[in-house]
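Listing S7. Sequence submitted for prediction.
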Amino acid sequence: MIRRLDLLGLWIALAGVSACGMTERKTDSSAGPSTVEREYAKPMSDVWAAAMDTLKAYELSISEDRRDALGGEILARRADDTQVRISLRSIDEERTRTFVRVEPGDRYLANLIQDRIGRKLGFGL
């Protein structure tokens, strides 16, 4: 009986995490080990606006931004000339996958940027 309750509790916890609207995935080796990938339960236009607002809030210089309804990419630079790349891919009308990479391979800063994008989308991290 206790084992059943443990399994039920685990299932409820996992369901709650997946219902929050944001998931983090391990990236494949083609994206690079320092690329942070997350999926948001928001349309591409909302995630794009949150990504742009995040870069502006961190006072990064946006050097390139291009997008269409299926996805896009933003290139920015920090004051020390470090490059930040955010790629967005529309999964469907209500879900978007984002990839953040800070060169040269700074996973910590990539996570900070993803966290801020999530907060701007209403996912309190």
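Caption to Listing S7: primary sequence and predicted structure tokens for the chain studied. Residues 21-120 form a domain with the TATA-Binding Protein fold (CATH 3.30.310.240). The helical segments are 2-18, 44-57, 107-120.
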